Here is the input.
Amino acid sequence: MSQARIWTGSTTFTSGSSTPFGTFDSDSGFQTDAPRVASWCAKRLGYPIIDVELEGDNFFAVFEESVSEYSAQVNQFNIRNNLGSLEGQPTGSSYTGQSVQGSELMNIVGISEAYGNQANVGGRADIKSGSIDIKKGVQDYDLQALWGDVSESGERIDITKVFHEASPAIQRFFDPYSVSGQGTLNLVDEFGFGSFSPAAQFILMPLYEDLLRIQQIEMSDQIRKSAHTFNIVNNKIQIFPIPEKPYKYHFEYQVVKDVREKAAIINPNVVSDYSNIGYNFAQYLNINDVGKQWIRKYTLALAKEMLGAIREKYSSIPIPGSEVSLDGSALRAEAQTEKDNLIEQLRENLNEVSKKQRMENEAAMVDQQQTVMNKVPLAIYIG
Here is the structure.
């Protein structure tokens, strides 16, 4: 039976061979702390009072794993916190150790554009117009066959608006004989009665006022003045009442294929999800003392777990006249509890400084300040 390898009291770190992955071997801070952490862990495990069946490379391996775990937990938090702000940014950039200032407005804009396509109020899909010739006495027309198959090469179209031919609202807006438009005031002024007309005519109105007035005229036409209506199913339109003479029916539409293709934005080689956002292992040298203390404790828990696995191989060993029971199972159970507590503590601390939590804390602080101010008596001034 081979002699068990036991901690000798000191060790030397060798870059490139002392750790399994070499992730932090080139970090001067890691190189300096590795032997110190190994010695500290051995003493916490009972050395030199009792033998510790671990070598320097065992301690270096769990030290590397602890730094990696700490960095991974921080990175996971940062990804959750910043994914919305970094989504769409080029991949290949590292955001480790950098402050990300931004919002998720671009995602909201993208969603709004997709809804805008369907609601016919924006988006990236083109809104096109077409018309058909209405025949006397004919109510039913297939817009897909009459227009989609001809003008859009057979592509499926989606009718968004249908309207009867009428003079544009902008024409009636400036029509001097239309009582619904600005033209009435112009007509009055032509006859020299401008000074006797309502004072509102002398107020310069912004452009949006004119647009709202035009929209009001069009809405009135659709709801109050038009005697025409229709029913459309599967791009087949039925017109009411029965046409008494030939005329044109106008409509607006979108090509379904165009809407579907432009509803989603496909950008290659950009941050898209949890898997390709640029957060790498932190440099050990840049981790503050709070983080390094967590790493030391986690290293001890991992070393305890490894030592327990070694000792658990044999529940007891014989000695002259008796036997000695080993504490492998107890060490492993204790190590698992310590690991779980450290992870939970770190996650709680990270969540307390998340963007969402900080905003909630600030809102609560403002409410508390307002409550205090409400109880401050107002000053009374005399004289």
